[in-house]
Amino acid sequence: MRASTALMTDRYELTMLDAALRDGTAGRNCVFELFARRLSGGRRFGVVAGTGRLLSLLRDFRFGDDELRFLRDERVVSPAAVRHLEDYRFSGTITGYREGELYFPGSPVLTVEGSFADAVILETLALSVMNHDSAVATAASRMSIAAGDRPLAEMGSRRAAEHSAVAAARAAFIAGFGATSNLEAGRLWGIPTMGTAAHAWTLLHDTEEGAFRSQIDALGTGTTLLVDTYDIARGVELAVRVAGTGLGGVRIDSGDLPIVAADVRSQLDALGATGTRITVTSDLDEYAIAALAASPVDAYGVGTSVVTGSGYPTAGMVYKLVARQGADGGWVAVSKKAEGKNSQGGRKSAFRRLVRGVAREELVEIADGFEISADPGDIADSRPLQVTLVDHGAIDAAHEGPQGVRTARAHHLRVREELPVRALALSKSDPAIPTVFSDAGRR
Amino acid sequence: MRASTALMTDRYELTMLDAALRDGTAGRNCVFELFARRLSGGRRFGVVAGTGRLLSLLRDFRFGDDELRFLRDERVVSPAAVRHLEDYRFSGTITGYREGELYFPGSPVLTVEGSFADAVILETLALSVMNHDSAVATAASRMSIAAGDRPLAEMGSRRAAEHSAVAAARAAFIAGFGATSNLEAGRLWGIPTMGTAAHAWTLLHDTEEGAFRSQIDALGTGTTLLVDTYDIARGVELAVRVAGTGLGGVRIDSGDLPIVAADVRSQLDALGATGTRITVTSDLDEYAIAALAASPVDAYGVGTSVVTGSGYPTAGMVYKLVARQGADGGWVAVSKKAEGKNSQGGRKSAFRRLVRGVAREELVEIADGFEISADPGDIADSRPLQVTLVDHGAIDAAHEGPQGVRTARAHHLRVREELPVRALALSKSDPAIPTVFSDAGRR
């Protein structure tokens, strides 16, 4: 049995559940919405990631003996609430954007429908997963755009907590990276893994030549040799001398990369190693990658900046009650009114409006009542954005596992093509397309 | 059985292991060091965190059937290397700073000694844990200093990936926070948990009064009511009307906090609720907390900024080979010489030199040979910083679990008192004390 995820939850969710069981509101049907009020860092689009992970974690959102004992012993909630949680299993419905889809301010990324008791306690887990994974995917997509056709590998595991590292490798792959250094991401999610040697390999040996020779004996001349442990020019000369002109590649992890890359390319060509590829891996982010576009670099490895969202490690999404049943059973749209944090109440349907294949606006329709037909067939030039992820408690397994990752990556690369050209610039600006809220009926 | 951590590893570590098994260097004894070249963000000190977690994760660093099958099927390493990994268990020695200790540039936070094969493959896991947890603890300690005697709670789980959230709650507690909203952190690490209600609680009910009344019925008048869902002044008036002047507290999650806190305090006092406490929770960081020092605030809740390291989500520590045995069995200090990334080779002993109880410098002695006596008894006014965490494969359990967390927190609060006054300022500057490298003999 896998570990329970049920206590990856803020205490107040269970406190509210407890009080709602007492006062009879626990059974009120509710609509919670997960969305971002704005895009972090003047980004022009966000990338939805984490959906497939969240669905698998939802399967393990059960209160086992250890979790129940903690809640009882610490008196987090009443005995009646503990009994309620013994049998808890989410039985509501979740619709949401496909993983890999783009999002904009106010996009209803996830809509969770169910009783208050069912839905309120998913807040923290849903936000933890979606905020982290979407932040990484959003940064990764910008890097992938900057890299163009050159291969891009994620190698930032050491700069992220151990489980986050695996999730980050997954999010980066969905957003266009081609490989990861993280082996667990390879095992769990089917992502290609890469890597040959660190500086420790050279330092372990009595000479750099000995290190290179041994690596080539083990991995063949197609391997990539790390040439900057001592002196780069001497390292390159030695690498070609040891491996021959068929050497697969050299990696550079330090120095002023545009200058160093040009020097190394000249040296390799002069030595006859014209097919030897140059990989650079030193503190890259989307701006550094863009600055190397004209340099003779063949591949990039990105660490810290991708796994930390390149300055914005969380997507800032929130999980808000937007509609509920009242005492009379009728539906009421609700939203907080406090200063500066207004949000749109009501259940929403979302469409991307396209003109000649180019995205023009994010259309978010607010339903008057609970039942709205969101039949996409009658919407010209609009693409419906929401799919059913959980149907009355039944999780759609198509979004999970390695298959879900492949589908999400393909979807991301496809919908990215719909963006207007201005969306591809790296500078800070407004969202690439506006979000337009409307009552049902406009189109 | 707990999940294996063995593939939370960059592929190149296993590739190097594989090649080292072939060329005979796998058995060379090595010293790897985990340290930070600089303090992120102009911080004046860093806080070591993650040590206790790392030791527990090291217990699970075993290659099971699933991990071995992946390595074999994907041909990550040769069959001989897969056979070697079947029996892998770290049998070396790890010394390091106590969890909760302060660190400075070049402090040998962890020293890992063992064969190359034993030690090289711990790089990613060790860095993932220490970089994340230390980044959070360093930010948290600054917030704890800024908060002074006022209680401080961590509530950022939703802005960190689901496992990182638990680790962040732990790191913040070690660095001086008093509680967390994260229930799993309470269960796993014994950290006090807190929380009462979100805006969804008020919105669920037909009226704000109904929500407040129900919460008080469930949790008593000592509870904290969230008063900013609609209008704060009306919320405060209502809260006291419903709960009476014995109301425990009100929470404010929006607005211009210095102004709002003063207004709410005046209103509470005028209503006779002079003992009702004010908790603020809106986008706080160490600077906002410091700016509220003169405001009538009784407690702080901090979310995003603490779990993301307040702008610096990773501590930037590295794991470097610093000494190894040569072909003749003698020890050789090694270090990379490439531009801009020099580090000090050699095995190190570290001491904090104090004058009248105030820290003056971080003394890092570099041993000439491998065997150096680091008997602290003969060092006047110096405090030895390293302890044995793993002794020839035997993990010291005293650092693990809730007991380890309590010990680390007490240690942190004690050693923070040794800092010079200038170390407590929040502005960017140099490290509070210099790191002095010396050959053994000076003192």
From TrEMBL, chains A, B:
<dbReference type="GO" id="GO:0005829">
    <property type="term" value="C:cytosol"/>
</dbReference>
<dbReference type="InterPro" id="IPR013785">
    <property type="entry name" value="Aldolase_TIM"/>
</dbReference>
<dbReference type="InterPro" id="IPR007229">
    <property type="entry name" value="Nic_PRibTrfase-Fam"/>
</dbReference>
<comment type="function">
    <text>Catalyzes the first step in the biosynthesis of NAD from nicotinic acid, the ATP-dependent synthesis of beta-nicotinate D-ribonucleotide from nicotinate and 5-phospho-D-ribose 1-phosphate.</text>
</comment>
<keyword id="KW-0328">Glycosyltransferase</keyword>
<dbReference type="GO" id="GO:0016757">
    <property type="term" value="F:glycosyltransferase activity"/>
</dbReference>
<feature type="domain" description="Nicotinate phosphoribosyltransferase N-terminal">
    <location>
        <begin position="7"/>
        <end position="131"/>
    </location>
</feature>
<dbReference type="InterPro" id="IPR036068">
    <property type="entry name" value="Nicotinate_pribotase-like_C"/>
</dbReference>
<comment type="similarity">
    <text>Belongs to the NAPRTase family.</text>
</comment>
<dbReference type="Pfam" id="PF17767">
    <property type="entry name" value="NAPRTase_N"/>
</dbReference>
<comment type="pathway">
    <text>Cofactor biosynthesis; NAD(+) biosynthesis; nicotinate D-ribonucleotide from nicotinate: step 1/1.</text>
</comment>
<dbReference type="InterPro" id="IPR006405">
    <property type="entry name" value="Nic_PRibTrfase_pncB"/>
</dbReference>
<keyword id="KW-0436">Ligase</keyword>
<keyword id="KW-0662">Pyridine nucleotide biosynthesis</keyword>
<protein>
    <recommendedName>
        <fullName>Nicotinate phosphoribosyltransferase</fullName>
        <ecNumber>6.3.4.21</ecNumber>
    </recommendedName>
</protein>
<dbReference type="GO" id="GO:0034355">
    <property type="term" value="P:NAD+ biosynthetic process via the salvage pathway"/>
</dbReference>
<keyword id="KW-0808">Transferase</keyword>
<dbReference type="InterPro" id="IPR040727">
    <property type="entry name" value="NAPRTase_N"/>
</dbReference>
<dbReference type="GO" id="GO:0004516">
    <property type="term" value="F:nicotinate phosphoribosyltransferase activity"/>
</dbReference>
<keyword id="KW-0597">Phosphoprotein</keyword>
